[in-house]
């Protein structure tokens, strides 16, 4: 994935990738920050992945007025500054209650009645 400075009208390409799903992650991140974004040529590059290199891959575009903020977010993402912490303390969480075996028996009995076996 590389950053580029292509411009088409009111939208600018801020990233390219031959793997459109990589761009989908960044698009979701931008949209969570209320920056509208869309992917150009993502579908064609997924269906015909062999030509993705020849076409330059899929492009992630944002409106020109959001380019600066989007590039800052993209830079932070690529630097790993937005990574989630792997150390999750599960000791404070309550364990799941044991499953109710009566529900399973009742379901089994209902199936037998439905099938005419009971």
Q: Work out the number of β strands.
A: 4
Structural class by secondary-structure content? alpha+beta
Radius of gyration: 24 Å
The description of the largest β-sheet is: 4 strands, antiparallel
**Overall pLDDT level:** 79
Topology:
Layout lengths: L6 E2 L2 E7 L2 H13 L4 E4 L1 H6 L4 H4 L2 E6 L3 H12 L22 H15 L3
Antiparallel strand pairs: 1-2, 2-4, 3-4
Task: Describe this structure as you would to a colleague.
This protein is elongated. With 118 residues, the chain is of the alpha+beta class. β1 and β2 (11-17) form a beta hairpin. The protein has helices at 20-32, 42-47, 52-55, 67-78, 101-115, and strands at 7-8, 11-17, 37-40, 58-63. The longest helix has 15 residues, at 101-115. The chain is built from five helices and four strands, in the order ββαβααβαα. Helix content is 42%, strand content 16%. It has a domain at 7-76: Alpha-Beta Plaits, CATH 3.30.70. The mean pLDDT is 79. The N and C termini lie far apart (62 Å). It has a four-stranded antiparallel β-sheet.
What keywords describe this structure?
118 residues; alpha+beta; Alpha-Beta Plaits; 42% helix; elongated
Brief characterization of the structure:
The protein is of the alpha+beta class and 118 residues long. The chain is 42% helix and 16% strand. The chain has a domain at 7-76: Alpha-Beta Plaits.
């Amino acid at each position: 994935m590389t950053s580029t400075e292509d411009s088409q009208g009111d939208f600018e390409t801020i990233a390219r990738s031959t793997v459109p799903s990589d761009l989908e992650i960044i698009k979701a991140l931008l949209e969570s920050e209320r920056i509208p974004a869309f992917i150009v040529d993502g579908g064609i590059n997924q269906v015909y992945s062999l030509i993705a290199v020849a076409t330059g891959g899929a492009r992630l575009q944002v409106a020109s007025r959001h380019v600066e903020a989007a590039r800052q977010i993209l830079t932070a993402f690529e630097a790993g500054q937005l990574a989630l912490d792997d150390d999750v303390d599960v000791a404070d969480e309550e364990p799941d209650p044991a499953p109710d075996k009566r529900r399973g028996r009742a379901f089994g009995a209902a199936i037998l009645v439905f099938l005419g076996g009971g």
